[in-house]
Write the structure tokens for this entry.
Amino acid sequence: MENKFLKYFLAANSAEGFESYFCDNYDYNDGWRAYIIKGGPGTGKSSFMKYVVVKAVEKGLCVELCPCSSDPDSLDGVIIKEIKTIILDGTAPHVVEPKYAGVCEEIINLGQFWNSEKLRERANEIIGVTTQNKKLHKTAAAYISAAGELVYDNYKLSKQFINKQKCENFALNFAPSLLPKKMSFKPKEWVRFIGGVTPKGVVAFKSTVEDFYENIVVIDDKYGAVANIIMQKIRELALLRGYEIITLKNPFLPSKIIDHILIPELSLAIVREYEYIKFGEQHRRIHARRFTDVNVLRECRNRLTYNRRLTRELFLGAIETLGKAKAVHDELEKYYIDAMDFHALTLFAQKKTEEILKIKP
């Protein structure tokens, strides 16, 4: 896949637990079709989606890729907005079940291509490896949860050393300058991530912004309070004025912090810049320090620095543990790969892809 693709995570290993927006990225009231893939590890779910991507690109369709946060080289989902279609890995931990089965959702069962007898013969090994994998993910979650407490502590501290009123006044004037009034009103919000903790480190899909958006506004804010005030105001006004937006949550504290907002109709991206995601110097910038009380910041500096240092250590622990979990998952996949009829699966994938990509006149 040498083409440039929009990339998003639809789920995150967050400090608030495993956060999934799988079910929030298709609209059954607007003619969307969801294909929910079921099957064990190594049964070809990601390969099936990659095959669909190749064929969709051949048809000239714009495809959005949704890698797996536990393995960024694998796919958890594919979105083809032009034909209102989404394909999702509906297995744990991001279980997806149909809301209106057969009406807008269809289950693709890859379990039909495995040899159950072969799997039963390796039952003890499969159960043992699965249990080990769950334990490692639980340990990684504990690291991330602890790191999240420190990220949140710094966020709360940052609220104390910013001039909130000055920031809110700026946001009230700044948001309307970015968002022209519209005659038509069809507001829509999609919620996703472009960053996350993975076995490869903290991964961020910066190219989703810089390769696809012409007007980029960068908020340079290490701790998040200033950026969040501005993001909330832009989000509220964009929806009020009828825009379709993509809200990109903070992967560590998704219920509390918005990191970025994308407005495709305007080719506009308002993004937050901090340690693990940096944007080009050519973009318009808003520096959080203009809203900062330096004296109060000075009083908090030692605690902020300590929290950030300890947070990095905890994330390293999480990343290392997720790497071990990935190795165990790879071992688990081997049992299923050995039990699969991939020839039959390939024939099925070819036929099903034609059906999925059939564009109505």
